[in-house]
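Sequence, please.
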Protein backbone atom coordinates (compact mmCIF):
# COMPACT_ATOMS: atom_id res chain seq x y z
CA UNK A 1 0.00 0.00 0.00
CA UNK A 2 1.29 3.46 -0.89
CA UNK A 3 0.85 5.47 2.31
CA UNK A 4 0.66 8.74 0.40
CA UNK A 5 3.33 10.55 2.43
CA UNK A 6 6.32 10.57 0.06
CA UNK A 7 7.96 14.00 0.15
CA UNK A 8 6.60 14.81 3.63
CA UNK A 9 8.97 15.84 6.44
CA UNK A 10 9.17 14.04 9.77
CA UNK A 11 10.87 14.75 13.07
CA UNK A 12 11.44 11.49 14.96
CA UNK A 13 12.74 11.83 18.52
CA UNK A 14 14.97 9.38 20.39
CA UNK A 15 15.60 7.51 17.16
CA UNK A 16 19.16 6.17 17.15
CA UNK A 17 17.96 2.77 18.37
CA UNK A 18 14.93 0.66 19.11
CA UNK A 19 11.38 1.82 18.45
CA UNK A 20 12.24 5.40 17.44
CA UNK A 21 14.76 4.15 14.89
CA UNK A 22 12.18 1.71 13.52
CA UNK A 23 9.61 4.50 13.12
CA UNK A 24 12.17 6.63 11.26
CA UNK A 25 13.12 3.69 9.02
CA UNK A 26 9.52 2.84 8.14
CA UNK A 27 8.76 6.50 7.34
CA UNK A 28 11.95 6.79 5.25
CA UNK A 29 10.86 3.70 3.28
CA UNK A 30 7.73 5.65 2.36
CA UNK A 31 9.86 8.47 0.93
CA UNK A 32 9.54 10.77 3.95
CA UNK A 33 12.52 13.05 4.67
CA UNK A 34 13.35 12.29 8.28
CA UNK A 35 15.19 14.28 10.93
CA UNK A 36 16.27 11.99 13.75
CA UNK A 37 17.34 12.93 17.25
CA UNK A 38 19.20 11.11 20.05
CA UNK A 39 21.80 12.07 22.62
CA UNK A 40 24.90 10.32 21.31
CA UNK A 41 26.08 11.97 18.07
CA UNK A 42 28.22 9.05 16.86
CA UNK A 43 25.52 6.41 17.32
CA UNK A 44 22.96 8.75 15.76
CA UNK A 45 25.13 9.46 12.70
CA UNK A 46 25.65 5.72 12.21
CA UNK A 47 21.88 5.16 12.34
CA UNK A 48 21.30 8.00 9.87
CA UNK A 49 23.81 6.43 7.47
CA UNK A 50 22.08 3.03 7.80
CA UNK A 51 18.63 4.47 7.10
CA UNK A 52 19.98 6.41 4.09
CA UNK A 53 21.63 3.26 2.72
CA UNK A 54 18.49 1.14 3.25
CA UNK A 55 15.98 3.62 1.83
CA UNK A 56 17.73 6.33 -0.19
CA UNK A 57 15.74 8.86 1.85
CA UNK A 58 16.91 12.26 2.99
CA UNK A 59 18.01 11.73 6.62
CA UNK A 60 19.27 14.50 8.93
CA UNK A 61 20.80 13.68 12.31
CA UNK A 62 20.67 16.21 15.16
CA UNK A 63 22.21 15.16 18.47
CA UNK A 64 20.64 16.40 21.69
CA UNK A 65 18.63 15.48 24.75
CA UNK A 66 14.99 15.87 23.73
CA UNK A 67 14.00 16.29 27.38
CA UNK A 68 15.81 19.65 27.43
CA UNK A 69 14.93 22.96 25.79
CA UNK A 70 18.33 23.02 24.03
CA UNK A 71 17.79 19.53 22.58
CA UNK A 72 14.35 20.46 21.27
CA UNK A 73 15.59 23.77 19.82
CA UNK A 74 18.34 21.97 17.90
CA UNK A 75 15.89 19.41 16.52
CA UNK A 76 13.41 22.12 15.50
CA UNK A 77 16.14 24.23 13.90
CA UNK A 78 16.89 21.30 11.59
CA UNK A 79 13.22 20.50 10.98
CA UNK A 80 11.18 23.63 11.74
CA UNK A 81 8.00 22.61 9.93
CA UNK A 82 7.47 18.85 10.18
CA UNK A 83 4.35 17.28 8.70
CA UNK A 84 4.91 14.30 10.98
CA UNK A 85 6.11 14.37 14.59
CA UNK A 86 7.00 11.19 16.47
CA UNK A 87 7.51 11.93 20.15
CA UNK A 88 9.72 9.54 22.07
CA UNK A 89 12.33 9.49 24.86
CA UNK A 90 13.88 6.89 27.11
CA UNK A 91 11.64 5.52 29.85
CA UNK A 92 12.07 6.42 33.54
CA UNK A 93 13.76 3.95 35.92
CA UNK A 94 11.75 1.47 38.01
CA UNK A 95 11.50 1.85 41.77
CA UNK A 96 9.34 2.50 44.83
CA UNK A 97 7.46 5.79 45.01
CA UNK A 98 8.66 6.30 48.59
CA UNK A 99 12.17 6.80 47.24
CA UNK A 100 11.28 9.32 44.53
CA UNK A 101 11.97 12.99 45.11
CA UNK A 102 10.33 15.91 43.36
CA UNK A 103 13.38 16.01 41.04
CA UNK A 104 12.78 12.37 40.04
CA UNK A 105 9.19 13.21 39.13
CA UNK A 106 10.18 16.34 37.21
CA UNK A 107 12.77 14.33 35.22
CA UNK A 108 10.11 11.75 34.28
CA UNK A 109 7.59 14.44 33.38
CA UNK A 110 10.19 16.32 31.30
CA UNK A 111 11.14 13.21 29.31
CA UNK A 112 7.81 11.45 28.91
CA UNK A 113 5.20 14.20 29.03
CA UNK A 114 6.38 17.82 28.79
CA UNK A 115 8.94 17.39 25.98
CA UNK A 116 6.20 15.94 23.76
CA UNK A 117 3.83 18.78 24.66
CA UNK A 118 6.52 21.40 23.92
CA UNK A 119 7.24 19.87 20.51
CA UNK A 120 3.53 19.69 19.71
CA UNK A 121 3.23 23.36 20.73
CA UNK A 122 6.08 24.31 18.38
CA UNK A 123 4.77 22.41 15.34
CA UNK A 124 0.99 22.08 15.54
CA UNK A 125 -0.05 25.46 14.13
CA UNK A 126 2.12 24.94 11.03
CA UNK A 127 0.41 21.57 10.48
CA UNK A 128 -2.99 23.25 10.82
CA UNK A 129 -2.01 25.95 8.28
CA UNK A 130 -0.79 23.33 5.80
CA UNK A 131 -3.89 21.16 6.32
CA UNK A 132 -1.92 18.04 7.13
CA UNK A 133 -0.34 16.78 10.33
CA UNK A 134 0.34 13.43 11.97
CA UNK A 135 1.56 13.28 15.56
CA UNK A 136 2.38 9.94 17.16
CA UNK A 137 3.37 9.73 20.82
CA UNK A 138 5.27 6.59 21.76
CA UNK A 139 4.06 5.79 25.26
CA UNK A 140 3.61 2.32 26.77
CA UNK A 141 1.03 -0.35 27.39
CA UNK A 142 1.43 0.88 30.99
CA UNK A 143 -1.01 3.64 30.04
CA UNK A 144 -3.76 0.99 29.84
CA UNK A 145 -2.44 -1.52 32.36
CA UNK A 146 -0.07 0.02 34.90
CA UNK A 147 3.20 -1.76 35.69
CA UNK A 148 3.80 -1.67 39.46
CA UNK A 149 7.50 -0.84 39.56
CA UNK A 150 7.21 1.74 36.77
CA UNK A 151 5.17 4.33 38.66
CA UNK A 152 7.09 7.25 37.15
CA UNK A 153 6.29 5.93 33.68
CA UNK A 154 2.65 5.14 34.52
CA UNK A 155 2.14 8.67 35.83
CA UNK A 156 4.02 10.72 33.23
CA UNK A 157 2.66 8.84 30.21
CA UNK A 158 -0.90 8.91 31.52
CA UNK A 159 -0.52 12.69 31.88
CA UNK A 160 0.53 13.07 28.24
CA UNK A 161 -2.25 10.74 27.10
CA UNK A 162 -4.88 12.72 28.98
CA UNK A 163 -3.67 16.04 27.64
CA UNK A 164 -3.58 15.00 23.99
CA UNK A 165 -6.99 13.32 24.25
CA UNK A 166 -8.49 16.80 24.43
CA UNK A 167 -6.15 18.45 21.97
CA UNK A 168 -6.69 15.77 19.32
CA UNK A 169 -10.38 16.68 19.12
CA UNK A 170 -9.59 20.41 18.88
CA UNK A 171 -7.47 20.00 15.73
CA UNK A 172 -9.12 17.02 13.98
CA UNK A 173 -11.03 19.23 11.51
CA UNK A 174 -7.67 20.43 10.07
CA UNK A 175 -6.55 16.93 9.03
CA UNK A 176 -4.13 16.91 11.95
CA UNK A 177 -4.25 13.70 13.99
CA UNK A 178 -2.71 12.89 17.36
CA UNK A 179 -2.47 9.27 18.48
CA UNK A 180 -0.63 7.21 21.06
CA UNK A 181 1.26 4.09 20.08
CA UNK A 182 1.65 1.77 23.06
CA UNK A 183 4.46 -0.81 22.93
CA UNK A 184 4.10 -4.05 24.86
CA UNK A 185 7.33 -6.10 24.91
CA UNK A 186 9.52 -5.33 21.90
CA UNK A 187 12.93 -6.82 21.41
CA UNK A 188 15.06 -3.69 21.88
CA UNK A 189 17.96 -2.72 24.12
CA UNK A 190 15.47 -1.50 26.72
CA UNK A 191 13.82 -4.93 26.93
CA UNK A 192 17.21 -6.61 27.11
CA UNK A 193 18.21 -4.48 30.11
CA UNK A 194 14.87 -5.14 31.81
CA UNK A 195 15.17 -8.91 31.33
CA UNK A 196 18.75 -8.90 32.61
CA UNK A 197 17.46 -7.32 35.82
CA UNK A 198 14.65 -9.89 36.06
CA UNK A 199 17.14 -12.75 35.59
CA UNK A 200 19.51 -11.35 38.20
CA UNK A 201 16.69 -10.88 40.72
CA UNK A 202 15.15 -14.31 40.22
CA UNK A 203 18.46 -16.18 39.94
CA UNK A 204 17.71 -17.49 36.43
CA UNK A 205 19.64 -17.09 33.19
CA UNK A 206 18.85 -14.38 30.68
CA UNK A 207 17.65 -17.06 28.22
CA UNK A 208 15.23 -18.46 30.81
CA UNK A 209 13.92 -14.98 31.61
CA UNK A 210 13.43 -14.28 27.88
CA UNK A 211 11.64 -17.57 27.25
CA UNK A 212 9.40 -17.18 30.27
CA UNK A 213 8.35 -13.62 29.32
CA UNK A 214 7.84 -14.46 25.64
CA UNK A 215 5.67 -17.48 26.47
CA UNK A 216 3.34 -15.22 28.47
CA UNK A 217 2.46 -13.31 25.27
CA UNK A 218 -0.40 -14.74 23.16
CA UNK A 219 1.69 -14.24 20.00
CA UNK A 220 4.38 -16.36 21.75
CA UNK A 221 7.15 -13.93 20.80
CA UNK A 222 8.42 -10.46 21.48
CA UNK A 223 7.48 -7.75 19.04
CA UNK A 224 10.19 -6.64 16.67
CA UNK A 225 11.05 -2.98 16.32
CA UNK A 226 9.79 -3.27 12.74
CA UNK A 227 6.34 -4.42 13.93
CA UNK A 228 6.18 -1.12 15.76
CA UNK A 229 7.67 1.11 13.06
CA UNK A 230 5.25 -0.13 10.42
CA UNK A 231 2.26 0.64 12.65
CA UNK A 232 3.69 4.11 13.20
CA UNK A 233 4.07 4.71 9.46
CA UNK A 234 0.45 3.68 8.93
CA UNK A 235 -0.79 6.10 11.61
CA UNK A 236 1.18 8.81 9.76
CA UNK A 237 -0.34 7.90 6.39
CA UNK A 238 -2.77 9.86 4.27
CA UNK A 239 -5.23 6.97 4.72
CA UNK A 240 -5.18 7.24 8.54
CA UNK A 241 -6.63 10.76 8.54
CA UNK A 242 -9.83 9.63 10.29
CA UNK A 243 -7.98 7.95 13.18
CA UNK A 244 -7.32 10.42 15.98
CA UNK A 245 -7.28 10.57 19.75
CA UNK A 246 -6.64 6.82 19.88
CA UNK A 247 -4.18 4.70 21.83
CA UNK A 248 -3.14 1.66 19.86
CA UNK A 249 -1.57 -1.21 21.78
CA UNK A 250 1.07 -3.17 19.83
CA UNK A 251 1.71 -6.13 22.12
CA UNK A 252 0.94 -9.46 20.44
CA UNK A 253 -2.35 -9.71 22.37
CA UNK A 254 -0.80 -9.40 25.83
CA UNK A 255 -3.23 -6.75 27.10
CA UNK A 256 -6.11 -8.93 28.29
CA UNK A 257 -9.07 -6.53 27.94
CA UNK A 258 -11.85 -6.90 25.37
CA UNK A 259 -11.51 -3.19 24.53
P1 LIG B 1 15.83 1.82 23.52
O1 LIG B 1 16.56 1.96 24.80
O2 LIG B 1 16.06 0.61 22.69
O3 LIG B 1 16.06 3.10 22.60
C1 LIG B 1 15.85 4.37 23.14
C2 LIG B 1 16.36 5.42 22.17
O4 LIG B 1 16.04 6.69 22.72
C3 LIG B 1 17.86 5.41 21.97
O5 LIG B 1 18.09 5.82 20.64
C4 LIG B 1 18.33 6.47 22.95
O6 LIG B 1 19.57 7.03 22.58
C5 LIG B 1 17.22 7.49 22.81
N1 LIG B 1 16.99 8.39 23.95
C6 LIG B 1 16.66 8.03 25.21
N2 LIG B 1 16.44 9.13 25.94
C7 LIG B 1 16.61 10.21 25.11
C8 LIG B 1 16.52 11.61 25.29
N3 LIG B 1 16.20 12.14 26.48
N4 LIG B 1 16.75 12.41 24.23
C9 LIG B 1 17.07 11.88 23.02
N5 LIG B 1 17.18 10.56 22.81
C10 LIG B 1 16.95 9.73 23.84
O7 LIG B 1 14.27 1.92 23.95
P2 LIG B 1 12.98 1.46 23.14
O8 LIG B 1 12.69 0.05 23.47
O9 LIG B 1 13.10 1.87 21.73
O10 LIG B 1 11.85 2.30 23.89
C11 LIG B 1 11.38 3.56 23.42
C12 LIG B 1 10.33 4.06 24.40
O11 LIG B 1 9.27 3.09 24.48
C13 LIG B 1 10.88 4.24 25.82
O12 LIG B 1 10.23 5.33 26.44
C14 LIG B 1 10.45 2.94 26.50
O13 LIG B 1 10.32 3.09 27.89
C15 LIG B 1 9.10 2.71 25.83
N6 LIG B 1 8.69 1.31 25.93
C16 LIG B 1 9.42 0.34 25.34
C17 LIG B 1 8.97 -0.99 25.45
C18 LIG B 1 9.75 -2.13 24.81
O14 LIG B 1 9.35 -3.28 24.97
N7 LIG B 1 10.82 -1.90 24.09
C19 LIG B 1 7.80 -1.28 26.14
C20 LIG B 1 7.07 -0.25 26.72
C21 LIG B 1 7.53 1.06 26.60
Amino acid sequence: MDLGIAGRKALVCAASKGLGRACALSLAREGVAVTINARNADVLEATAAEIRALTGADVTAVAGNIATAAGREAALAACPAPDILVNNAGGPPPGDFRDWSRDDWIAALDANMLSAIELIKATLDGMIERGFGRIVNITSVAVKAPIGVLGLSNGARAGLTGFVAGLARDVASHNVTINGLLPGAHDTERLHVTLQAVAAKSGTTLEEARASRASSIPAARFGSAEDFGEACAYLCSRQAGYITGQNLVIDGGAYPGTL
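The chain has a mean pLDDT of 97.
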